[in-house]
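User: structure tokens for this one?
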Amino acid sequence: MHLPSIRREKYLLRPWDAADAMSLASHANNPRISVNLRDGFPYPYTLKDARQWLKMISENKSDMILAIEVEGEAAGGIGLHGMKDVYRYNAELGYWLAEKFWGRGIISDAVGVLVNYAFTHTRWLRIYASIYEHNVPSMRVLEKNGFIREAIHRKAVMKQGKLLDEHLFSLLRENWAALRDQMTDNNPHVDT
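Assistant:
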């Protein structure tokens, strides 16, 4: 899959590079980030973890996995993971950002920009995200971008020894098309 570079005022979405390992390890090594993500995103997050993950995604040709570059360094990530078989028109959205950049609107904007790109450049018809019950700010990010809460999977997630509810949000291309006209600045500079 082609990985775009999308420049915004506060950040740049771009493909990850092996040279991002130090920055990735530094920004990802935070329990307040890992508590909201799957166990494949460990805490502590070491340089070895960063190098292994960067190698793995460099070989991934079916998903859209991008770095969020802020102030010249990879300070987060956002991605769309395409589903297979009967779910092939679905993509799962995931994202995280270094804590020092929280509260600046970066993730809210990045989600909107990536969804816009995906619905105009891929075959995906539905984008969804699963959010743990305590991550209300992430739920707000999705709602700001037109996602609808479809379900609450009760006690579906075991994270750090606790059973948690998982909130499932989705956005359909047809609903996004109606929302797109209401959104401002939905044509960021995309380097192809």
